[in-house]
Design brief:
This protein folds into two domains: about 180 residues, Rossmann fold (3-Layer(aba) Sandwich); about 150 residues, Rossmann fold, CATH 3.40.50.2000. Helix content is about 40%, strand content about 15%. The protein is built from 16 helices and 13 strands. Strands 3-2-1-4-5-6-7 form a seven-stranded parallel beta sheet, with helices on both faces. The radius of gyration is 21 Å and the shape is globular. The N terminus and C terminus are likely disordered.
Length: about 400
């Protein structure tokens, strides 16, 4: 149920004195990464469209304080207008429950656009709910592809892209993927990485958080974050935990463990006494730990991007990544689903490396560019002028209408 019942119509009038409907934008978030990617867009939209209604819907896919509520505080987001309480469960349960409840919110609020982000179950559910009710969908972080359909996230992102009216990309790789799938390029806008906007805005707070000092870490450390089913739910979990224990011979190992990871370790009877095993930490503390780390070991897509921006070496315990720009231009290295390769990290850290660069448009202004698109003419619809460029904030790239 909504925290606050908002009138569907305002008292705004057009020049003829007739009542007109106020534009309504609905932003649907569900998990930790969604908040970080969506917050800059909400901020830019509210600054540009102050008379519009901005409805924030939280599905509750992540629901405890460290994975959810803390983000509304740290990212300066207003409390959600709807908290749908989906909770944990299978992908099917989460998607179906979020689909039903987001549809009810859409029916109540009648938004002009629904904005979703990323690739979690809530993303697909909200995109499908909007598409089925005839509301245009804008997808933040479109076009990422691992080309591994066994990953639930890959199915979510592909399906959401094909449901969307407006697709915001953060790299040229993503543009190319969407073109290869036959998506109308007039609907694709290269705006940059909205998650990096959040990092730009938090740089001062990250520096002052001093998370490592507060934990009593005195020397170099490796920050670990692992949660994907391929590592956590099967036979690879045990050798991965053993590899972290061995890594602790040379570095402190700090592991803020996702709840599903802690539960899987408990089921398997695994302990890691030499690893600093923590509950999930707040976003600022996590970024502070990441910035101070000698390296990061992860299976998270977002951490691959954050470490590239922060200039921290990143080792990704996966066979593939939907973010190849972090390898080509950043600090990321794929080491495969091979826990034994964790032992190679200390030696790789002393090898000379090419100086990483910050990818194009990871400049803190992606949310502004996305807002410009959302408040502009409907993509693909003639406005009497030349075709709209797909790039935002740069020269046209030769689109044809």
């Amino acid at each position: 149920m909504p925290h606050d019942t908002v009138p569907r119509f305002s008292n705004a009038q057009d020049q003829s004195g007739l009542m007109k409907r106020t534009d309504t934008f609905m932003y649907v978030v569900g998990t930790r990464p969604n908040f970080v990617k969506t917050a800059p867009v909400i901020s830019a939209m509210k600054a540009r469209a102050q008379d519009a209604r901005h409805i924030l819907v939280h599905t509750g896919q992540h629901y405890d304080d460290a994975m959810s509520s803390v983000f509304f505080r740290e990212l300066d987001l207003s409390p959600p207008d709807y908290d749908l309480g989906v909770g944990s469960g299978t992908a099917t349960y989460q998607t179906a429950t979020a689909l039903k409840r987001v549809t009810e919110a859409i029916d109540r609020e009648r938004p002009d656009k629904v904005i979703v982000a990323g690739d979690v179950n809530s993303t697909l559910a909200a995109g499908l709910a909007a598409a089925q009710t005839g509301v245009p969908v804008a997808h933040i972080e479109s076009g990422l592809r691992s080309f591994d359909r066994t990953m639930p996230e890959e199915l979510n992102r592909v399906l959401t892209d094909h449901l969307s009216t407006v697709l915001f990309t953060h790299s040229k790789d993503a543009d190319e993927n969407l073109a290869a799938e036959g998506i109308d390029q007039r609907r694709v806008f290269f705006v940059g990485n909205t998650m990096i906007d959040t990092l730009h805005s938090l740089r001062g707070q990250i520096a002052s958080a001093r998370a490592a000092e507060n934990l009593g870490l005195m020397g170099p450390y490796i920050l670990v974050t692992l949660h994907r089913p391929a590592l956590v739910d099967g036979a690879l979990l045990k050798p991965t935990v053993h590899a972290l224990e061995a890594l602790a011979d040379l570095f402190s190992v700090v592991f803020p463990a996702h709840p599903r990871t802690r539960a899987a370790m408990a089921r398997a009877g695994l302990d890691a006494p030499r690893v600093t095993l923590l509950p999930p930490v707040g976003y600022l503390d996590f970024l502070s730990l990441q910035q101070g780390a000698s390296a990061v070991l992860t299976d998270s897509g977002g951490v691959q991007e954050e470490s590239t921006f922060l200039g921290v070496p990143c080792f990704t315990l996966r066979d593939n990544t939907e973010r190849p720009v972090t390898i080509r231009e950043g600090t990321n290295r794929l080491i495969g689903l091979q826990p034994d390769r964790v032992a190679d990290i200390p030696a790789e850290l002393v090898e000379p490396r090419t100086r990483p660069t910050i990818p194009e448009k990871w400049d803190g202004r992606a949310g502004d560019r996305a807002a410009d698109v959302l408040l502009g003419p409907e993509p693909g619809r003639s406005t009497g002028g030349p075709p709209r460029s797909r790039t935002c904030g740069s020269a046209p790239r030769g689109d044809t209408a």
